[in-house]
């Protein structure tokens, strides 16, 4: 077994490069814009799905709403998230009430 003095001379750590960890301030708002972007995208796709009867837009709106909810912070406005969900769900429901056929992929006409 090696002695403590030889162990210290072979130690690759540099004590002058040690930086003490400082926890982030929990009251400071984070700068992650992802939930807001997904919320806006969800509303845009919902309106396209409702107005233009595009089923894929309605499904993308629902996906954007789910991503926005998953990435939102606990102190975000719950009314905005709920309204985004309701708008996207209504876009999906209305697009299938008007035309109940499933979505036909563009490449299905090639086969």
Can you put this structure into words, describing what you see?
Residues 1-10 have a biased composition (Polar residues). With 111 residues, the chain is mainly α. It contains four helices and no strands. The chain has helices spanning 4-9, 34-52, 55-71, 78-98. The longest helix is centred in the last third of the chain and has 21 residues, at 78-98. The chain is elongated, with a radius of gyration of 26 Å. The model has no long low-confidence stretch (mean pLDDT 85).
Keywords:
111 residues, mainly alpha, elongated, Protein Asterix
Helix content: 55-70%
N-to-C terminal Cα separation, in Å? 73 Å
Largest sheet: none
Number of separate strands: 0
Strand content: under 5%
Oligomeric status: single chain
General shape: elongated
Main structural class: mainly alpha
Secondary-structure element sequence?
Answer: HHHH
Can you count the helices?
4
Mean pLDDT across every amino acid position: 85
Residue ranges: pLDDT <50 for 5 or more in a row? none
CA-atom Rg in angstroms:
26 Å
What would a concise description of this structure say?
The protein has 111 residues and is mainly alpha-helical. The chain contains four helices and no strands. The protein is elongated and about 75 Å long.
